[in-house]
Design a protein that fits this description.
By secondary structure, this protein is an alpha/beta fold. The protein is built from eleven helices and ten strands. A six-stranded mixed β-sheet has the order 1-2-3-5-7-10, sandwiched between helices. β2, α1 and β3 form a beta-alpha-beta unit. The longest helix has 29 residues. The chain is globular and about 65 Å long.
Length: 259
């Protein structure tokens, strides 16, 4: 992969590499289990903002540094700092960057290289596709700490695997390895650890090769399917199809005029 593009700015807790139409964002705190602190959340907000406006990036991969942790969730040491309730609410509003990730116009792939717990799993859930290393483990483990998820986990998990299995994961703090996550429908693919990034890059490359406009519409329609009634989604789908057909006919007319 190529180095960090200039537009990414200075990065301390994350890394960005771009190769052709695929961008790879890496959580870069391996000494702290790639836990989400305020610095990481701020960098991710900035990266998602920039990537959302990049017409030359058609797919995004999110992964973690090392082979033990994708992300262990909230930085509990930082979370225990003495601060006002208002400051704590602002700092712990982790869904801000997670919702930016979910809202990216480009399809996203979570390459889960190790433990993805709490907010780590919530980031993976905000991605469109998930590839897991066989040894990796995922779970929403907040209840064991007397907490609940704060980055959309209770909302996205049941939409993916149903309310009964989501309740079992949440109430019991279940951790699923790659094969189990695949069987439960949380992972699209499960591969040996040594093949994870190769598989993620291959998948992202296949996605990125699709026509850009159709890809963006397809992602938005899939997202809306989770958020609104079926009848509304069907109408939006038809609107998108008619728009794309009109654009295709316009291109054909221009090409015909040029020959």
């Amino acid at each position: 992969m190529k180095g960090t593009p200039d537009w990414a700015g200075d990065l301390q807790t994350t890394a960005l590499a771009v190769e052709g139409p695929v961008a790879v964002v890496t959580l870069q705190r391996p000494e702290a289990a790639n836990a989400r602190n305020q610095a990481m959340r701020s960098e991710l907000e900035r990266l998602w903002h920039h990537l959302a406006g990049r017409d030359d990036v058609n797919a995004v991969i999110l992964t973690g540094a090392g082979d033990r942790f994708f992300c262990a969730g909230m930085d509990l040491k930082e979370a225990g700092a003495d601060e006002s309730p208002a400051d704590r609410r602002d700092r712990l509003r982790s869904s801000r960057d997670i919702e930016q990730l979910a809202a990216l116009p480009q399809p996203t792939v979570a390459a889960v290289n190790g433990y993805a717990l709490g907010g780590g799993l919530e980031m993976a859930l905000a991605c469109d596709l998930r590839i897991m290393a066989a040894h990796a483990q995922i779970g929403l483990t907040e209840l064991a700490h007397g907490l609940v998820p704060g980055g959309g986990g209770t909302q996205r998990l049941p939409r993916l695997i149903g309310s009964a299995r989501a309740a079992e994961m949440l109430y019991l703090g279940l951790r699923l390895d790659g094969p189990a996550a695949l069987a439960w429908g949380l992972a699209n693919r499960c591969v040996p650890a040594g093949e994870l990034m190769e598989s993620a890059l291959e998948l992202a490359g296949q996605v990125a090769a699709q026509p850009r406009r159709a890809l963006v519409y397809a992602k938005e329609l899939l997202r809306q399917a989770q958020e609104g009634p079926l009848s509304q989604g069907v109408e939006r789908e038809l609107d998108a199809l008619l728009t794309l057909l009109a654009e295709r006919q316009a291109r054909a007319g221009v090409e015909g005029a040029e020959t």
